[in-house]
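seq:
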Amino acid sequence: MLDQPQFGRRLRRLRAARGLSQADVVGDGMSTGHLSRLESGERRPTERTVAYLARRLGVDASALTGPTDGRSLTAVLASVASAPAGSDGTGVLGRAVEEDPGEDPAARWQALWLLSRDAGRDGDYELERVRLLELLELSRVLEAPDLRARSLVRYARCTRALGDADGAEPAAVEALSVARAAELGVPDTLAALTVLIGVETELGRWESASRHVDEMERDLLPGAPSALAAEALWAAAEVSDRQGDEATALARLDTALDLLEGGDDLALWARLRAAATATALHMSPPRVAAAERWLAEAAPVLGLIGTPTQLQELHVLQAHLAFAQGPAGRRPRAEPGRAVPGAPASVLPRPRAAVGPRRPGSRSWRAASRRGSRPWNGWRVRRPSPGAVISRPTCGRPWPPPWRHTSTPPGRPGAR
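struct:
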């Protein structure tokens, strides 16, 4: 059995990760007061209590009572930071955080920062938001303006990703205010201004967003790192696109694409190409060739590392591109006797059967006359339905409607 207060911390973390209140967890078999004392460490849990809470949380009992490895949070952080590439230390770090007594707020802040980053990368924005709320509290305790500004920037992005732009705006405004008041460097100030521009654009405050874009391009972009500059230009392109200036939006995205290399931030590299594809297809007329190139570059990367939302956006872009390509984007049809482009030279389409002239007075000639068709210069001409609009001659030359012409077809003496 896990001793207190580690059990209470682990119980509280599991409940918060699922977005449950204490009343949601206790149900009819426990009081909220008893659960509160368990989480605070004032009461030791029994086996029956552990089994009941595990059922309510939907986890195995070992998730609440499993043993610890005895290492401090600082030691686990060092192990995770030095692990080989491709190692996943999220589970170990999460357990260390829940068992941490909180004696080192700075180490706890760093651990929560890594855990929130991993949750956002996996598309679990609810869990990321839970981590970030504790980060904000710790940054206030630490009285570090740089940590406070970075926590606010990430919290604003996460809240916007959850669809709450109104809730993201105060965090973005405070992040920019903290960065300016503490005279933080260009990267921190640019990150705060970028997220604020994105929130203002989504809320329809284009005048304020345009003013911030001008300030960003004038004061911050010249000395910004390439990845941050590319992301800032993306936000500026969104402002231009919402205002109907697709040419300026695409020019900014072109500049962002030139700034960012694939090794800097692979996810951002692919998402920028997806954004450029959407802007190119939104133009009139659409820039189909550029959209094809960018989407072909982004699709394999998003297919490997994209979140479910990003994959859904990719499928929408692919459908939009196919619509913009139109009939010309489909496989070309070859003329009879000519090879199909892209097919082996030995594969030739089958020519259609030639329809030759009918011999006047023949059985087919008489049958055509009974069906309402009239031969014209030896070729079969079908009578159009009443009210039909004839767009082009069927026989390669102008012809009057069959029921109105008075000329005599060859070989039909006396025909009207």
